[in-house]
Amino acid sequence: MYCGMSRGLPLESNGLRVLTRVGYGRVHLKNYGAMYKSVQEAVAPELPRGAEKIARAHLVLRTHGKTICRDTTPLCSDCPVSAMCAFCS
Ligand code: SF4
After folding, report:
1. What is the pTM of this model?
2. Which of 7, 12, 14, 74 has its CA 20 to 30 A from that of 66?
3. Whose CA is nearest to atom 8 of ligand 1?
4. Res. 89: pLDDT tops 90
5. Host domain of residue 33
C-alpha cells in the first residue's frame, strides 16, 4: 500500500466496518471475503489516486473504526459523518 503496489483500498476490519455502515457494499456476517469484495467494488469509483492518498484513507478509516465507529458501541453522536450514515439513520 505504501509503495503504491496494492490494488483498491486495503482495509482491515475497522475500516471495513465503517464503510459498510455508511453504505458501501453489503454486510455478510458469515462470509468476510464476500463482504470485503463487495466493499472494494463499491468504493472503487471513488478512490483517490496515489499511494499517499490511499494510505491516508486506510489510516483514517482504521482510526475512525477503532475510536468512534466501534464494533459494539459506536459513538454516533460524536461522529462527523452521522448525517450520511445508513447505519445511524
Ligand atoms: S454515524 Fe455511527 S455507525 Fe455511522 S460511521 Fe459514524 S459512528 Fe459509525
Report:
1. 0.93
2. 7
3. 69
4. no
5. 13-84
Is residue 6 included in any domain, yes or no?
A: no
Q: Which of 20, 46, 35 is nearest to 9 (CA)?
A: 46
What Cα–Cα distance (Å) separates residue 61 from each residue in 30, 50? 22, 17
Task: Determine the Cα–Cα distance for residues 11 and 13; give it in Å rounded to an integer.
Answer: 7
Q: Domain total for the chain?
A: 1
Task: Grade residue 72 by pLDDT with cuts at 50, 70 and 90.
Answer: very high
Cβ of 1 less than 6 Å from ligand 1? no
The answer to whether the CB of 68 is under 6 A from ligand 1 is yes
Q: Is residue 89 part of a domain?
A: no
Mean pLDDT of 4-11: 91
Q: What is the mean pLDDT of residues 27-50?
A: 96
The answer to whether residue 39 is domain-embedded is yes
Mean pLDDT of the chain: 95
Q: Which one of 69, 70, 73, 78 would you pick to mutate in the ligand 1 pocket, going by the greatest count of ligand atoms within 8 A of its CB? A: 69
